[in-house]
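Hi P.,

Sorry for the delay on this. The queue was packed all week, but I finally got your sequence through. Input first:
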Amino acid sequence: MSQPEPPNPKSPYFDLAKKYNLKIEFKPFVQVEGVSSKDFRQQKINILDFTAVVFTSKTGIDHFFRVCNELRIVVPDTMKYFCITENVAFYLQKYIVYRKRKIFHGKAKFQDLIDVIVKHREDSFFVPLSEPHNAEIPDLLDKNNIKHAIGTLYKTISSHFTNVKDFDYDILVFYSPSGIKSLKENFPDFVQGNIKIAAFGPTTASAVEHEGLRLDINAPNPKAPSMTMALDDFLKEHNRNQK
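Then the structure:
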């Protein structure tokens, strides 16, 4: 799993491991590095010029409020928050009194959230993203004539695997194009062979195929809205074929 180990012992990943007697290793392929408040100021963005903020991840929320704190910006109670999923929206409770704010969320994809945002096109939106980020987001905002500004609050950089001697796994699971990039940087001679590759999200799937790799497990899909469900379906079918 190319992400940190879940802190919740009831994570569905652990249920999956128990169900199929799997050995799961969590190895983040990317690291998030916050942009300093000094570097953010150089982007010439004044957060208080905006009436709404768009969050595509919990990481974005953490770094938004970090930068606001460092710059001594008091975010007004009138600020609206638009989050890509309900789960991301609930994460705002870490920083604000949730029930007293105007908070909106989509279902899973940014296109879903755009449908909500266009109903508030009178607002001015600040969109904190990483560098690099998905071009689909600014493209959809432009296409729908939404007044917005993209701000870089954190950077996604490849992790370095200095202690991994034998890259011996049956399934590799990726959640972002950056993870695929990190794989190629760490293991330039990587040959997929019988290793199965799972990708979450269309941009991650595209990155897999762009690198000439084979995509074996794709999520979300109509039958499996989560990665654990997609892996469950794959393993169930695999075990059936082994009998």
